[in-house]
Amino acid sequence: MSSGSAIRGSRAGAGPSGEAVRGEVCPRVQVSYYCANGHITQPSFAVDAQIPEQWECMKCGLPANLDQRNPPPPPKTQPYKTHLAYVKERRSSKEAHAILEEALSHLKDRRARGEVIY
Ligand SMILES: [Zn+2]
């Protein structure tokens, strides 16, 4: 007759008690990256890892590189374009002027006929 109480408390798959479960410890190197704002970001890499030439600044998000005296320039951010800006891109100012003139002459005609009072 087995009581079954011996099974209770056993942990399937558990390692020997006292075993530290840690990540693999490997030698690391800390690298300094400099951004255009003068921030220094110092991630660490495994010594055998490929050190990237650029890193993102932890403080401002600008690209940073290993050259303190020559950090990468801030990326040119595309400003938000208005609808008018897109229209201007599609039409030359000459065309726009012609369109405006046409609209104005229509308006003048209508005004001359008394259709528009302003
Ligand atoms: Zn920065």
UniProtKB/TrEMBL annotation:
Its cofactor is Zn(2+). Pfam families: RbpA. It comes from Propionibacterium cyclohexanicum. One of its GO terms (biological process) is positive regulation of DNA-templated transcription. InterPro entries: RbpA_sf, RNApol-bd_RbpA. It comes from the Bacteria. Forms a complex with the RNAP catalytic core and with free principal sigma factors. This is RNA polymerase-binding protein RbpA. Residues 1-22 are annotated as: Disordered. Zn(2+) binds at residues 35, 39, 57, 60. The lineage of its organism: Bacteria, Bacillati, Actinomycetota, Actinomycetes, Propionibacteriales. Keywords: Metal-binding, Transcription, Transcription regulation, Zinc. Binds to RNA polymerase (RNAP), stimulating transcription from principal, but not alternative sigma factor promoters. One of its GO terms (molecular function) is bacterial-type RNA polymerase core enzyme binding. Residues 1-20 have a biased composition (Low complexity). Bind 1 Zn(2+) per subunit. Belongs to the RNA polymerase-binding protein RbpA family.
